[in-house]
Amino acid sequence: MKTxxxxxxxxxxxxxxxxxxxxxxxxxxxxxxxxxxxxxTIADIDTxxxxxxxxGTTALVPDAQKIINDPDIDIIVETIGGETFAxxxxxxxxxxxxxxxxxxxxxxxxxxxxxxxxxxxxQVDLAFEASCGGCMPIIKSLRESLVANNIKSMxxxxxGTCNYILTKISNDGSEFEDALxxxxxxxxxxxxxxxxxxxxxxxxxxAILNSLAHGIKINLKDIHVEGIRNxxxxxIEFAKSFGYTIKLLAIGKMHENHVEARVHPTMIPDTNxxxxxxxxxxxxxxxxDATGQTMLYGxxxxxxxxxxxxxxxxxxxxxxxxxxxxxxxxxLGYPEENIKSIPILPMEELYTRYYMxxxxxxxxxxxxxxxxxxxxxxxxxxSVHQKGRMDNGNVPIVMITHIAKEAxxxxxxxxxxxxxxxxxxxxxxxxxxxxxx
Length: 437
Ligand code: HSE
Description:
Blueprint: E1 3-9, H1 13-24, H2 26-33, E2 36-43, E3 59-61, H3 65-68, E4 75-78, H4 85-95, E5 99-102, H5 105-121, E6 126-127, H6 138-145, E7 151-157, H7 160-172, H8 176-186, H9 193-197, H10 200-214, E8 224-225, H11 233-241, E9 244-254, E10 259-269, E11 281-288, E12 292-299, H12 303-323, E13 351-360, H13 366-376, E14 381-386, E15 395-401, E16 404-405, H14 406-417, E17 422-431
Parallel strand pairs: 1-2, 1-4, 2-3, 4-5, 5-6, 8-10, 10-17
Antiparallel strand pairs: 7-9, 7-11, 9-10, 11-12, 13-15, 13-16, 13-17, 14-15
Helix pairs in contact: 1-12, 4-5, 5-10, 7-8, 13-14
Bound molecules: L-homoserine.
L-homoserine (HSE) binds at residues 159-161, 188-190, 196, 201, 300-301.
């Protein structure tokens, strides 16, 4: 039986999960793949800490070059994370004609086009199922299973930390900082929390998925990104009273001459299944023109769910090796010559409905001033909600608008902020009605 040699760069949580599956599931994997997946070497600067895995004959070395330059190694798994060493090692591995599997979303989102070109030039595969949505097979779904669909839209909850924080505030009345601390203790938050809570981690994933869904180059820089720092329990309570839930969504939509790609807190109706995705779970709804709505749900992070996704890439590559083929599935889902240049819609051009919350001194005429400014900016109000006074004597005024243009809304907010009786910065949350077909 054929043996396929594997090396792992980085023996942290995910690297250890991959080693564990390769060791403990060897019989299942051999029987499913028809070849032995042999974990030959792991490289990590920490060769001393016991990860609780019986490595048997696998070597644990401190030098990544021992794997990258080993002529016997067929597949290299990068689980170092970050963008410096990981990028250098992956490029070198691809140039050495090794197939590479990575879980590194920041790297693929930021430098994926270059890495894909290097892989193509060297006729090897680059696979990254674990980069988006942990164990959910979203990359394979977009690249292979949904091949006969134009993907009209995708909406995803792709960051477990944000979903956990929003769930805790909504269900338990937790404070933002306490919920974040719990997420960090549970181990799915990034080492740098702003990557999670300011939306960048979600944007990395959306950049990758938008490319695969729509056949465009990976484009991170034009994605509009907002995080959840400004979401307050007051907004969550108002949302609930309207039958809505607030989620940090990654939204990708295809239009004739542009795509939408945006990450921001979004109000979705409680009839949308995404509103019931709680705690640290991830989910993505995809609207294909043949399938209609389809959804994936699962753990977006964690040792074994992420390792499971890495193993699916290893298995694909191993099966290609057995058949003596490579590049069967284009890395970005389309052959290079068919990848289109379609711009991302500038945010100010977006049309959607808005939730707006203003804090105002309870003076006569303030409501009419606010609605006057909205009217002057072509924004039509669907409903107005005002509850009792806050502890400081001010009143929260909430408005739901009909569909309006983002540029009009931003202009109106500037003008409203300058009204004397309006206190602080108005809050806006975009409303997304996901069409169920
Ligand atoms: N920090 C990420 C999350 C981990 O919270 O979902 C997975 O990318």
